[in-house]
Amino acid sequence: MRRLTALVALAILTVAGCGGRASDTPTGTVTVLAAASLTESFTQIGKDFEKANPGVRVRFSFGGSSTLAQQITSGAPADVFAAASPATMKQVTEAGLAAGPADTFARNQLVIAVPKGNPKRIVGLADLTRPGTKVALCAATVPCGATAATALGAAGVTVTPVTLERDVRAALAKVRLGEVDAALVYRTDARAAAAQVDGVEFPESTKAVNDYPIVALRTGPNPAGAKLFVAYAKSEAAAAVLTHDGFQRP
Amino acid sequence: MRGASSAPTGRIPVALALPAAAGLTFLVLPLVGLLTRTPWSDLPARLAAPGVLDALRLSLGTATAATVVSVILGVPLAWLLARSSFPGRRVVRALVTLPLVLPPVVGGVALLLVFGRRGLLGGWLENAFGVTVPFSTTAVVLAEAFVAMPFLVISVEGALRAADARYEEAAATLGATPWTAFRRITLPLVLPGLAAGTVLCWARALGEFGATITFAGNFPGRTQTMPLAVYLALESDPAAAIVLSLLLLVVSVAILAGLRERWMSVP
């Protein structure tokens, strides 16, 4: 249902953005499908981009990287894809839908998200195995779950979560609601929820760094605008926004 | 289509037949899409994959439990709405149908705000009884009952309104207590409506997704029902998701058809 709504929205946006197709200077609307963890950063970057390129508008659709990849391979009319993992990007590039090779524009690491003030005094991954500690992880099929599995493997820790959430924001929501004591989420997600959540850094996170690739899509309705946005996302100005939000440079 | 059954009317008016055919096509076409993309060759291997049977068993079990809860609580509620008059009955009916219009995800959040650790009742339940509801199979049943019970209440209430109340009055004049009249007269009268409502309720509970994943989370064998398994399989392996959807469809259609034979053998 959510996917259908997104597709319908995209179709409408695409029709609205068709004005820029004929001319050489990019105009019209660029439709960007981006990983949920990029929500805050890309919203800001989109505003900056529109200011730097008058006449071009950016429309975002944020969601789980795998869902977005599927929307693209099913023919969603999108111009740019920014994924939270190379694996999800590969689904799009291997389908021959990318205009060029994907480039890594940001990296992200995991932290342990705990309720503000860290009431259970969690300082490392080993604390997640304590009896009575409720942990939410992402399902192994989504990027944050795969990254968490790598980090836990590196630490030699086996955690029994109470739930395997569908995406990183859903895992974080369980911490924000106070239903779990900890969740493994990206540093950027913990930072975005700083009012209710503390992010506990742990050393093993460096062994499970997530690369964020971006690519212009061959099949999109606004190829010129797509190229322009991808270039902007890799610029100094965008990097400043991304680092401010907790991402690392590639 | 013509002459396929011994319909009492002779000709089907075109004004009805055309939209009816279009409606049927619209409902069945997605199913055809599912069937055309089903990986038939490795179907047995995929059905035997670990977790598939667990999810199916959990789905059937929780949907049935949610239906039982809905019948026990919903039938009296329907009776109250149909047979008694009290101030604010319209408001009560609107409240009963609320879960129908509420997005299930919102229902899930609302349930967390009641039964969660920081919820209205959840904190007390944990302190007094050591019971935590979220992330348990109980939470799945509660989420499903919350979303599905209105279907039952509405069906039964409709049946009660259609049933002739004079039989109950006659029973009362013959000395039957209201409870006996309800049990011996009312219930048999509305049985077809109750059966239809129960089936609708069960089917809705079986397909429940939003409230379940929000309130009960997702953990294989404990809270991962078929719809949740389908959603998560879609993230990584669309073919597996199609197989799971197909399995859920086949099993539920088989059960519903079986029940129809047994229960609704009304001529």
Layout of helices and strands:
The complex is a heterodimer of chains A (250) and B (267).
Chain A: H1 2-16, E1 28-35, H2 39-52, E2 56-63, H3 65-73, E3 80-82, H4 86-94, E4 103-108, E5 110-115, E6 135-138, H5 143-155, E7 163-165, H6 168-176, E8 182-186, H7 187-192, E9 197-200, E10 210-216, H8 223-233, H9 236-244
Parallel strand pairs in A: 1-2, 1-3, 6-7, 6-8
Antiparallel strand pairs in A: 3-10, 4-10, 5-8, 5-9
Helix pairs in contact in A: 2-9, 3-4
Chain B: H1 14-36, H2 43-47, H3 52-83, H4 89-96, H5 98-101, H6 104-115, H7 122-129, H8 137-162, H9 166-173, H10 178-189, H11 191-207, H12 210-215, H13 226-236, H14 238-263
Helix pairs in contact in B: 3-8, 3-11, 6-8, 8-11, 9-10, 11-14, 13-14
Descriptive account of the structure:
- Chain A is of the alpha/beta class and 250 residues long.
- Chain A has two domains: 2-107 and 212-244, D-Maltodextrin-Binding Protein, domain 2 (3-Layer(aba) Sandwich); 110-207, Periplasmic binding protein-like II (D-Maltodextrin-Binding Protein, domain 2).
- In chain A, 38% of the residues lie in helices and 22% in strands.
- Chain A contains nine helices and ten strands.
- Chain A has a five-stranded mixed beta sheet, with helices on both faces. In chain A, strands 7-6-8-5-9 form a five-stranded mixed beta sheet.
- The radius of gyration of chain A is 19 Å and the shape is elongated.
- By secondary structure, chain B is mainly alpha-helical.
- Chain B has a single domain (52-263), classed as MetI-like fold (Orthogonal Bundle), CATH 1.10.3720.
- In chain B, helix 3 (52-83) packs across helix 11 (191-207), helix 9 runs antiparallel to helix 10 (178-189) and helix 11 (191-207) packs antiparallel against helix 14 (238-263).
- The longest helix of chain B has 32 residues, at 52-83.
- The chains are: A alpha/beta (250), B mainly alpha (267).
- Chains A and B meet through helix 3 and strand 7 of A and helix 6 and helix 13 of B.
